[in-house]
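Researcher: Go.
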Amino acid sequence: MTALLGRRDRGAPGASEEPPDPETLEVSAVLLASEDRDISADAISLAGKIAEQSKAPVHVLVIARIWGTSFGFPNPGLFPNKREWDEQHKKAELAVRALKGWGLEADGHVLGTRNATKKILQEARVHNCGAIVMTADEPRGRLVGNMIWSQEPYRVRRRADIPVYLVTES
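Model: Structure:
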């Protein structure tokens, strides 16, 4: 069974924990994003359903993690190697192929960054996306979650001003 976790509307009076129903969402584009993890079939399916009802394209974005800096300067040893880049390109290609199999307009690309949340939100703005769909692990406490790369989807959800649908395996 898959659980959908949505973005909380910060500051809205009586804000609900639930995102808008994906069945009623009208968007101009959908961003299917991944921070260095496989994109689940359920996430692809949800993004496809949202795009299909709006007749919108799906943009697939996969983040290749850059591990940091060395003495404050970028270091080539901290960048993804060719094998890691190829793995991320394969993830994007598989998602795009699945979406095109549904007859949807889809494209995908891979970006390297240290700050996946910032890059995902930038891409959503650039492509004028009305929703973001991501595969996510189970949520952890905020203190621990802010230190773990696998909790990146929750950081995206907290900072986004559009609905973010997180698909978990529970």
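Model: The helical segments are 41-54, 82-101, 116-126, 142-145, 152-159.
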